[in-house]
Design a protein that fits this description.
5-stranded antiparallel β-sheet; 14 helices; alpha+beta; 10% strand; 5 strands; 317 residues
Length: 317
């Protein structure tokens, strides 16, 4: 039989595609993620079928000579002129007939997206297929008696977290993104010696970042906190959720320029383990210091900026 149609070839191909899918998902390239996730599932599904009987991946359409050639090809008795096997949908259908897989609309949609039959309306829609990939891989590996650790490698924790229904959806999503960000950091700085990486993180945390800005929704403060993914200094954004007379600064977002982690809501910050209360308290203190206790109004803000710009500076002798 053709080595490219062997169990080992399908399994290795599934593993490579699944890892690429995880990389795509971590970079926010969700269309590419859907493509590679579909390829991973197809190849792993064929690995399961071949493990039971190589003939199970032969395409059957009528009584054509090509079907007979493929039967002999898979049996090792004759080399087919054109190697043709079933597609992902048929592989999944056969595994359902064998009670390996159960009906799953999300899985069917993922395969349709990968085949171009259906199109995700936005990146967020394709992003949501990660649990489907992780769950399907786990089911197929269980049938094979395979190891999740051996298949997923460094992505094992993220894959397990994606299907951990004991946790909230927000928590699962954030923890997966933290693992993805950590791997991005490792890939980005893997050529640096460990002591230089630690020095870089320390210097990032030492930077005293404090910026005040004015948006359509009011005063916002940018400061620095430890990144929950890579441990470097990440930028956090706090916004005044109170009034000008009674300001109340609340942290609402985090972004890290080292591992590119992005957290866009307070719930995500809490799920990442950020001490939001401490961040709020520091932002309130910094604001009070910056404005000298004045009311945090647009007029006060512009006055402080004007004072800063008009302050005379002298070069040292």
């Amino acid at each position: 039989m053709d080595d490219s149609l062997s169990f080992e070839s399908f399994l290795e191909g599934a593993k490579k595609a699944a890892h690429r899918a995880m990389d795509d998902h971590g970079r926010g390239e969700y269309d590419e993620f859907a493509l590679h996730a579909g390829v991973a599932i197809e190849r792993l599904a064929k690995a399961v079928l071949v493990s039971k009987n190589p003939i199970y991946i032969v395409e059957v359409k009528g009584n054509s000579n090509s079907n007979t050639d493929m039967l002999f090809h898979m049996g090792g008795h004759r080399r087919a002129k054109k190697v043709r096997t079933i597609g992902a949908s048929e592989a999944i259908s056969r595994l359902r007939a064998l009670d390996v897989l159960s009906p799953d609309k999300e899985l069917d949609t993922l395969i349709d997206v990968r085949n171009g039959v259906a199109h995700a309306g936005s990146g967020d829609e394709a992003k949501a297929f990660l649990p489907t990939l992780a769950k399907t891989v786990e089911t197929l590996l269980k049938d094979l008696g395979g190891s999740l650790n051996a298949f997923w490698g460094r992505w094992t924790i993220a894959a397990r977290m994606a299907v951990d229904n004991k946790r909230s959806k927000v928590y699962r999503d954030v923890q997966v993104r933290i693992k993805q960000a950590k791997h991005r950091y490792d890939d980005r700085f893997s050529d640096l010696p460990e002591h230089l990486q630690q020095h870089l993180k320390i210097e990032q945390l030492r930077l005293d970042v404090f910026r005040v800005g004015l948006t359509g929704s009011g005063i916002q403060i940018e400061s620095r906190e430890k990144c929950p993914a890579c441990g470097s200094g990440a930028h956090v954004l706090s916004a005044n959720q109170g009034t000008e007379e009674s300001p109340h600064f609340t942290v609402i977002a985090l972004r890290c320029s080292m591992c590119y982690l992005r957290l866009a809501t307070r719930d995500e910050l809490e799920a990442a383990g950020v001490d939001v209360k401490s961040v709020d308290d520091r932002a309130a203190y910094q604001a009070a210091t910056f404005f000298d206790g004045a009311v945090l109004s647009e007029r006060t803000f512009h006055m402080r900026v004007e004072q800063f710009l008009n302050t005379e500076t002298h070069d040292p002798d």
